[in-house]
Amino acid sequence: MNTLIFRKSFIFFNLLTFLCFAVTYGQQKQYPVISPNGKIKLVLHYQASVADDTTASAKFHIYYQTNGKWTAVLTGNSLGLSTDQEQFKKLLLKSAGTVKRTDTRYEMLSGKRKLCINDANEVTFAFSNANGKPLNIVFRVYNDGIAFRYALPKWSDQQVNIKDEYTTFNIPAQTERWAQAYDPGYEDFYPYSTSGKGEKGQEWSYPALFRSKQAPVWYLISEAGNSEFNAASKLSNKADLNQYKVSYAAGRKGFAQQGNVSKLPWQSQWHTLMIGSLETVVQSTLITDVSEPSRIAQKDWIKPGAVAWIYWAYNHGSKDYQKAVEYTDLAKTMNWPYVLIDWEWDTMGNGGKLEDAVNYAKSKGIKPMIWYNSGTTDWCTATPIDRMRTRDKRLKEFEWLNKIGVYGIKVDFFAGDQQDMMKLYLDILKDAADHHLMVNFHGATIPRGWSRTYPNLMSVEAVFGAEWYNNGDVMTNKAAVHNATLPFTRNVIGPMDYTPVTFSNSQHPHITSYGHELALSVVFESALQHFADRPEAYYALPEAPKNFLKTVPTAWDKTRLLSGFPGKHVVMARKRGTKWYIGGLNGEEDAKVLQFSLDFLNKKQANITIIQDGENDKSFNTQTHLWHKGQVLKINCLPRGGFVAVVE
């Protein structure tokens, strides 16, 4: 019966789309495309003058259906490209394709969800510019957002530099927004604003979160599917605080190329907007949905897990062999499968060399991973520095790692977001996959869906994370609100190597509670979760939180947002096997009761163990009880506090 209802609904919405597909108003035409569930509508608005085709233009509008009515979310959004040979700002519509259904299933080895559904209605619009050169724009309308990309057919045998876009998102005035000032390292906060005025300029990183005033709807703007022919882009509202224009990122000093150099045909990255309730946005897999399928056939060697990590505690790498041993012993004690041997391992001393540290780890049943400098910057001299940049050196290094028994690499300090860096990321992932090496990118760009294409990409930094306790005192007072913002912004688009769960202090203190820190292991998603504190801090934990950290997964079958608001609080539930793990954060300076329901379990009752804040911020309170359907759980949290729970 449900299948029949679904088919009838599918036929109805596609018939509706077909009937409405070309609505003409004089010389204006509206081409609506509706999501499979009928909640989101994209309308391509085309306008041209009969007397002068060069005035032709195309914009798109986005609507969301609430209470049976379409409400405007974003209207008057601009489209177009600029190349070194042709301009595509005045667009002449040549044809509008038919609506096609994209409906595929795929599995992820890591991330917020194991089984993902790539389900959308897709339409391709064919345009030309004033000189008759073609440009296609492909739109997909999903149940949880939209995606679109540009495609240039072959009209030249020469290389073309796609230098810029005219793509502009027209944000209504007074829209609430959480956006990070652009920097190719993506290590900053997401300040709240209604004006769009920035403290560090008017360029913004992805992802950028907005809360619409016109409808009870949220949307998160980002991009995905960047290939070796696509520079990354960013947003700028320099010209108008409410108009966010897409532009391609230039590199850091010494890597100033801007644009996309390619032979034709060429395709852009996907521009993505996750749209709906805050829960819909957080749970969306749109970034991997639009990305290329896995290029790795055999995947049994790719295993998410927890990692013992040295840098946070000492603001130093693994130059000391005895420290490498100490953190291997920590991994063994805590039942974590991996240890990271960090920078300066090439000069390791005090009783052993790198090979000794690797062999010691293997003797304990721990899988070692090691750090590399990407070799692309002219300002970072941390070693080893020149083993990843060129393919011949990289392959030689990977063969050696296979020989000595290393399972993964962390590659750090990339030079920017320009096209050659996108190519380097993908080249490293491909070569690492060929050698069965898992990869973690640091000092790097944001996730762009590559974890689907290359499942050996386990995590990416691109976040103002716990290591910043080493670099200044700003994290001390801002960590709680920042941590309660990241689940709605940065972590939505992919794995985030924040290096969490610290109970002692690094160079600068933290004032989040122990319960808050413990909760980061669930709230933050990363297939390699680098636990950052000193061994003695973990050994000193009470049995309940210690045992929790010994068993908490790092890859998930399902994810649900149970409650939250950016910067205020979050309650996240993640399932692995038969258990649900729940993490809650209080981002505010006052004590708070976090409330949520477990009725989504579709059970009459379940056992739940809760580890929450104790009498003070350095203690825990653990309790186990039977939950009954209909019962609203209420967890007391200290200022900047938190909790974890296991439901089975």
TrEMBL record:
Residue ranges annotated for the Glycosyl-hydrolase 97 catalytic domain, each copy included: 318-463
Alphabetical list of InterPro entries matching this protein: Aldolase_TIM, GH, GH-type_carb-bd, GH97_C, GH97_catalytic, GH97_N, Glyco_hydro_b, Glycosyl_hydrolase_97
Signal peptide: 1-22
Gene3D superfamilies xrefs: 2.70.98.10, Aldolase class I, Golgi alpha-mannosidase II
Domain Glycosyl-hydrolase 97 N-terminal: 33-293
Pfam family, one: Glyco_hydro_97
Chain coiled-coil ranges: none
Cofactor(s) of this protein: Ca(2+)
A GO MF term: hydrolase activity, acting on glycosyl bonds
Residues in Glycosyl-hydrolase 97 C-terminal oligomerisation domain copies: 555-646
Keywords for the protein's UniProt record, in alphabetical order: Calcium, Glycosidase, Hydrolase, Signal
Complex formation: Monomer.
PANTHER family associated with the record: GLUCAN 1,4-ALPHA-GLUCOSIDASE SUSB-RELATED, RETAINING ALPHA-GALACTOSIDASE
Protein name in UniProt: Glycoside hydrolase family 97 catalytic domain-containing protein
